[in-house]
Design a protein that fits this description.
The chain has 154 residues and is of the alpha/beta class. The protein has three helices and ten strands. The protein has one domain: Metallo-dependent phosphatases (Purple Acid Phosphatase, chain A, domain 2), CATH 3.60.21. The strands form two sheets. Strands 3-2-1-9-10 form a five-stranded mixed sheet, covered by helices on one side. The chain has a five-stranded mixed sheet with strand order 4-5-6-8-7, covered by helices on one side.
Length: 154
């Protein structure tokens, strides 16, 4: 299964279009917040399901939740923006909760800095900012194995 991951789009439809071009074969997209309402445009454009978490710039009228959980290709995925878990300081709190939630893949944003880190067999993935850093991420899950990559977009 191919999963596209995007975050911090901040209303940029062009950044979303570039991300979809970068991961054209995504079967699912995850949006880690800050304009989680952009997930509607992403779903329409990509033609696949999208799950989004609420970011600190999303306001109170967004339907997205602070934390979203789903299972894809046998992996437990936790999507959060990260601002409630102090991700700009370090990943200590995120790691703690990932262990509590028994998450295999933790998707977060907020820092605008792309990151892929494997810790205790868990993958922590921050796709960076699609709008301000021109990055997204591509994850492939095949036979229980996870491969993740940060991609530059236009």
């Amino acid at each position: 299964m191919i999963i596209g991951i995007i975050s911090d789009t901040h209303g940029s439809k062009k950044a979303i279009e570039y991300a979809v071009e970068a991961v054209p074969n995504a079967e699912y997209w995850l949006h880690a917040g800050d304009y989680s309402q952009d997930a509607d445009y992403l779903a329409k454009l990509a033609g696949v399901p999208v799950r989004a978490a609420c970011g600190n710039c999303d306001g109170y009228d967004t339907p997205a939740k602070n934390d979203e959980y789903l299972t894809l290709a046998g992996k437990e995925i936790w999507i959060t923006h990260g601002h409630h878990y102090c991700v700009k300081e370090n990943l200590r709190e995120l790691r703690y909760w990932a262990n509590q939630y028994e998450s295999d893949i933790i998707v977060f944003g907020h820092t605008h800095i792309p990151l892929i880190e494997q810790y205790d067999s868990r993958y922590f993935i921050n796709p960076g900012s699609a709008r301000y850093g021109a990055t997204c991420a591509r994850v492939e899950i095949e036979d229980g194995n996870v491969t993740a990559k940060i991609l530059m977009i236009k």
